[in-house]
């Protein structure tokens, strides 16, 4: 029970990695509020956990809605000990075929949303004198992968923010870190599953990751076991970046 009594806010918690994080957090003793756009899936995920999980429908890119998300989370949980910035938008497309709408959506969901949400949650953690903030990035923030430049750039911004937030919030007892997954089998990446499999064959692991394997790393960073970790960008990528 690594998170016994802890209270967590998880964005993008209705499917894929986010759903796995919610499952793992509840199993380890946490109470969770999960935020997502898909009401049907979000409600279904929350319903599986006998009151330990609550669903809030919101679009993380809608900054105006975020104060309400935080307020409702605090009303439900009483405090926020853990924030997981997991909600993401994913785009595939070459540089020579730019799409302004796709660019804006990726940066709104992947950067602007986490930036403002973290800024809203941080004051309550500072008052508590403790907290854990974990953001999901990607290994592609560290290496060049053709065709996903917008996605990679947005996640690289989050990796940079992780370091800045660690410097700003660490003195207040708040640990800020990030997890960088490699190719993982999720609904968001279903359209490029074959390309992911081919890519994975060049990695030491020789396979794609599973959402639960990413959730395990997030669990560690959200627990007291990681109290001396600040500003880390943890690769959970089958060894690709290392080799």
How would you describe what is shown here?
The protein has helices spanning 16-27, 39-47, 66-77, 100-128, 149-169, 193-200, 211-222, and strands spanning 7-11, 31-36, 53-57, 82-85, 131-136, 174-181, 233-236. It has 243 residues and is of the alpha/beta class. The protein has a seven-stranded parallel beta sheet with strand order 3-2-1-4-5-6-7, sandwiched between helices. The chain has one domain (7-182, 210-236): NAD(P)-binding Rossmann-like Domain (Rossmann fold). The relative contact order is 0.15. The termini are far apart. It contains seven helices and seven strands. The protein is globular and about 45 Å long.
Question: What brief labels describe this structure?
Answer:
single chain; 243 residues; alpha/beta; Rossmann fold; seven-stranded parallel beta sheet; 7 helices; 42% helix
Architecture blueprint of SSEs:
Layout: E1 7-11, H1 16-27, E2 31-36, H2 39-47, E3 53-57, H3 66-77, E4 82-85, H4 100-128, E5 131-136, H5 149-169, E6 174-181, H6 193-200, H7 211-222, E7 233-236
Parallel strand pairs: 1-2, 1-4, 2-3, 4-5, 5-6, 6-7
Helix pairs in contact: 1-7, 4-5
């Amino acid at each position: 029970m690594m998170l016994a009594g802890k209270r967590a806010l998880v964005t993008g918690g209705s499917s894929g990695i986010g759903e796995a994080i919610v499952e793992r957090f509840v199993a380890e003793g946490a109470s969770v509020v999960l935020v997502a756009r898909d009401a049907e899936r979000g409600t279904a995920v929350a319903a599986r956990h006998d009151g330990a999980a609550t669903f809030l429908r919101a679009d993380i890119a809608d900054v105006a809605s975020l104060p309400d998300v935080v307020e409702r989370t605090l009303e439900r949980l009483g405090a926020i000990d853990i924030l997981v910035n997991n909600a993401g938008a994913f785009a595939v497309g070459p540089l020579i075929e730019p799409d302004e709408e796709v660019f804006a959506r990726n940066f709104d969901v992947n950067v602007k949303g986490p930036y403002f949400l973290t800024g809203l949650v941080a004051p309550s953690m500072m008052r508590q004198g403790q907290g854990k903030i974990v953001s999901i990035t990607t290994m592609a923030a560290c290496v060049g992968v053709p065709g996903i430049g917008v996605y990679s750039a947005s996640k690289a911004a989050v990796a940079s923010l992780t370091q800045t937030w660690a410097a700003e919030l660490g003195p207040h007892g708040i640990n800020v870190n990030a997890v960088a997954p490699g190719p993982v089998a999720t609904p968001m990446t279903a359209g490029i599953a074959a390309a992911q499999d081919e890519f994975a064959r060049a990695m030491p692991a020789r396979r794609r990751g599973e959402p639960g394997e990413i959730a395990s790393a997030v669990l560690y960073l959200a627990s007291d076991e990681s109290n001396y970790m600040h500003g880390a960008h943890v690769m959970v990528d089958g060894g690709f970046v290392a080799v």
